[in-house]
């Protein structure tokens, strides 16, 4: 399970070295094959390839005639790429993905339970400053957690 934020840098060549805590989780699960993409053009996502294949299998049932699914697959497919992480936890982010998501210099690699998100740290911090969770947001999360604990 991926959680927390660990800073990283992307090299000029586009190579990213995963922060050690995240690499250790992947190593423990014997995972080196990843799918790297973006859903929104702002945040890159790093998925264990097997997890991404589960998403594809679920979407396959709805891909014919569903405009929302087509848009999603267009975005994630156009910017996506299968990569193999090396023994040091490194892999190359494609130029098209780096350009779209502004991944350069200082990055934040954030755990999202089943996958990782990679964002431009300065832009993300600006976004966080204006998108503070509201009372309604926190109540909605609390309702989800309460419903899950009752089930």
From TrEMBL:
Subcellular location: Cytoplasm, Nucleoid
Keyword Glycosyltransferase: no
Every SpoVT-AbrB domain range: 5-51
One GO cellular component term: nucleoid
Primary localization: cytoplasm
GO biological process, one term: negative regulation of DNA-templated transcription initiation
Any matching Pfam family: MraZ
InterPro entries per record: MraZ, MraZ_C, MraZ_dom, MraZ_sf, SpoVT-AbrB_dom, SpoVT-AbrB_sf
Keywords: Cytoplasm, DNA-binding, Repeat, Transcription, Transcription regulation
Transcription regulation is among the record's keywords: yes
SUPFAM superfamilies for this protein: AbrB/MazE/MraZ-like
Record GO terms (molecular function): DNA-binding transcription factor activity; transcription cis-regulatory region binding
UniProt similarity note: Belongs to the MraZ family.
Record note on quaternary structure: Forms oligomers.
Identification of the protein by name: Transcriptional regulator MraZ
Gene label: mraZ
């Amino acid at each position: 399970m991926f959680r927390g934020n660990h800073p990283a840098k992307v090299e000029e060549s586009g190579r990213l070295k995963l922060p050690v805590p995240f690499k250790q989780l992947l190593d423990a699960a014997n995972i080196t094959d990843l799918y790297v993409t973006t859903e929104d053009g702002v945040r890159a996502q790093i998925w264990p390839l097997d997890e991404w294949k589960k998403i594809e299998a679920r979407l396959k049932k709805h891909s014919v005639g569903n405009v929302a699914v087509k848009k999603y697959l267009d975005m994630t497919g156009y910017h996506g790429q299968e990569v193999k992480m090396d023994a040091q936890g490194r892999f190359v982010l494609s130029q098209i993905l780096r350009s779209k998501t502004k991944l350069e210099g200082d990055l934040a690699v954030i755990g999202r339970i089943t996958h990782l998100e990679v964002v431009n740290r300065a832009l993300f911090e600006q976004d966080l400053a204006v998108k503070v969770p509201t009372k309604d947001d926190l109540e909605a999360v609390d309702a989800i957690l309460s419903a899950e604990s009752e089930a």
